[in-house]
Write a structure and sequence with these properties.
- The complex is a heterodimer of chains A (322) and B (229).
- Chain A has 322 residues and is α+β, with helices and mostly antiparallel strands.
- Helices cover 66% and strands 7% of the residues of chain A.
- Chain A has 2 domains: 185 residues, no CATH class; 97 residues, 2-Layer Sandwich (Alpha-Beta Plaits), CATH 3.30.70.3040.
- Chain A has a 4-stranded antiparallel β-sheet with strand order 2-3-1-4.
- Chain A is elongated.
- Chain B has 8 helices and 10 strands.
- In chain B, α5 runs parallel beside α6.
- The longest helix of chain B has 16 residues.
- Classes of the chains: A alpha+beta (322), B alpha/beta (229).
- At the A-B interface, α1, α2 and α8 of A face α2, α3 and α4 of B.
Chain lengths: 322, 229
């Protein structure tokens, strides 16, 4: 009759569990994983909806990233055109060239120096006037100046840095005439900053929208299964025991959604985006859009997993009232 | 086993859901809580399994004041109880077996042990032929027997039932009543909230009548009660 006698007092006995199989860290973890997988199987529709939502949401973000990364690349190749040119009205000897080259490269910010002789200058001029070469008939190389074309390091390509560089360049003896397309550099920098700001703004709106949509979808799917949460808590499941399979499910949904979105993105890229390059970069030299670099793909996958996990965590908080 | 001392609880300020309730249920006892809708039967049961805490007074389960338990201790309290409801609260997408096994999974039992124990209790309930059915494929009486199996599989010290026969016909009511009695004979303290006269008469147990949050009558045997009312 009194099978409870040996289990007194009540307080301690509440927290005692029979020591049976399925106990221990390994056993529990296995249980949580198998429970999560069974849940997915038993709630196929809900899971398909969640994974689909996460996949579409991340696809939008990754498409945005793809465009943004390519625009940034285009801007990078454009900024290589930020050059400082030093003009001379005579041909430099090999020795002089080496001397100037050494002095210029010693300045902070210079990355490359290229000497353009009179012949070379005339050749370029001719190329620019292709089709109207006759205009240049009778023009001799002597009327053109020679020059040193100086490319700048990435960090020194904005307008202030360029001006600083020009000031120190003019202090080198023998250098008097310097051109660097001030207006163009300034405009290009303004455009670049505007583009980055716009990108950051759009990107953050997009991310907020995605978080909102995904977390609400997960909330609805968990709401649909609140009976399960209630029953679990009625039979004495701890909060963690109730949550763990749902969180694993969330992680699997997030990871699955992210992988699906990357697959879709890759499919879209392979089928038509890769040759939309000329349109986007305005640069005939590039062959097309490049795909997202590996670290971005990793970040997107992680973002999916995190979305699934955090979405489930916050929704569960609302529905478990143990 | 269960003691309530001057327990009061308010859902709204001016109307107490329970008012100064004093009740003592001994170990191995079987009582009925009755009274009209809104009398506080369900609220009282919810207090007992820790879903609500009283604003005043104490609720002692097995000597433990449960309003002092932290949220994380409540699950351990519930492991010593079984609870059944009028709407059964079975999980629709799990089989009968899985529905009953939940109780033991929560306790960390291994699969082979769970299998044996669940089969044993389902046999007692006469449900062994339907282990792989889902609840939708069962009649009301069968569903309640599965819910009872889930509540009793862990041999709880206390069984709480909230209108357990509200959705059932007479034959099923008798069957469910017999299960309560058997559990009680094995030593489980049983508290059944119901306004089902037939169940109370059939039960022939102590009867506590609630009305508007107060205990208005306590009668030792249901038989005498039917005469008293």
């Amino acid at each position: 009759m009194n099978r409870w006698k040996k289990q007194k007092p009540a307080v301690k006995q509440f927290s005692k569990r029979p020591n049976l199989a399925g106990e221990g860290f390994g056993g529990r973890t296995r249980y949580y994983f198998s429970r999560a997988l069974i849940n997915i199987r038993q709630n196929v529709f809900v899971n398909v909806v969640t994974i689909g939502t996460i996949a579409l949401a991340l696809l939008i973000v990754s498409l945005f990233l793809l465009v943004f990364v390519n625009l940034e690349n285009a801007a990078q190749s454009w900024s290589e055109k930020v050059q400082v040119t030093v003009y001379f009205d005579r041909e430099l000897s090999g020795q002089e060239q080496t001397a100037f080259r050494g002095k210029v490269l010693a300045l902070p910010g210079a990355s490359k120096v290229n000497y353009v002789s009179r012949d070379e200058a005339l050749k370029r001029f001719r190329e620019r006037l292709r089709g109207q070469e006759t205009l240049l008939d009778g023009v001799r190389p002597e009327i053109l100046p020679t020059s040193l074309e100086i490319s700048l390091k990435k960090a020194n390509r904005d307008s202030k840095e360029v001006e600083k560089f020009v000031v120190s360049l003019k202090q080198i003896q023998g250098i008097t005439e310097v051109q660097y397309g001030e207006e163009w550099v300034r405009r290009f920098n303004t455009f670049l900053n505007f583009m980055r700001l716009l990108g950051a703004l759009l990107g953050s709106f997009l991310v907020v929208a995605v978080i909102f949509i995904v977390s609400n979808t997960i909330k609805l799917t968990i709401y649909a299964r609140r009976d399960e949460l209630e029953v679990m808590s009625l039979v004495g499941a701890t909060r963690f025991f109730i949550k763990a399979p749902f969180l694993i499910e969330g992680i699997l949904q997030g990871g699955g959604g992210a992988l699906l979105s990357l697959a879709l993105l890759f499919g879209m890229y392979e089928s038509f985006l890769h040759n939309a390059g000329n349109f986007l970069t305005f640069n005939p030299a590039t062959t097309g859009l490049s795909f997202l670099p590996a670290e971005y793909l990793g970040i997107l996958l992680l973002a999916g997993i995190l979305l699934g996990f955090l979405g489930s965590l916050t929704s569960l908080k609302r529905f478990i009232n143990v | 086993m269960i003691q309530l001392h001057n327990v009061s609880l308010f859902y709204q300020k001016d109307a107490p859901a329970l008012h100064n309730i004093n009740l003592r249920v001994d170990k191995g006892e079987f009582i009925f809580l009755t009274g009209p809708s809104g009398a506080g039967k369900t609220t009282l049961l919810r207090l007992l399994y820790g879903a609500l805490t009283p604003e005043r007074g104490q609720v002692l389960i097995d000597g433990q004041n449960i309003s002092r338990l932290t949220k994380s201790q409540i699950p351990y309290l519930r492991r010593s109880m079984g609870v059944v409801f009028q709407d059964f609260k079975l999980l629709p997408n799990r089989t009968v077996f899985e529905n009953v096994a939940i109780t033991l999974e929560v306790l960390g039992w291994g699969r082979p042990d769970i299998g044996k124990k669940v089969m044993h209790i389902l046999k007692q309930m006469g449900m062994e032929s339907k282990i792989s059915h889902t609840p939708q494929a069962l009649s009301g009486g069968e569903q309640q027997r599965v819910a009872l199996a889930r509540a009793l599989v862990n041999e709880p010290k206390i069984l709480l039932a909230d209108e357990p026969t509200g959705n059932l016909d007479d034959a099923n009511k008798n069957q469910i009543m017999n299960i309560f009695k058997e559990a009680n004979v094995r030593g489980t303290t049983v508290v059944v909230a119901t306004h089902d006269r037939r169940l109370i008469d059939n039960g022939n147990k102590r009867l506590v009548t609630l009305s508007k949050g107060d205990i208005v009558e306590q009668v030792e045997k249901a038989e005498t009660c039917s005469q008293a009312i």
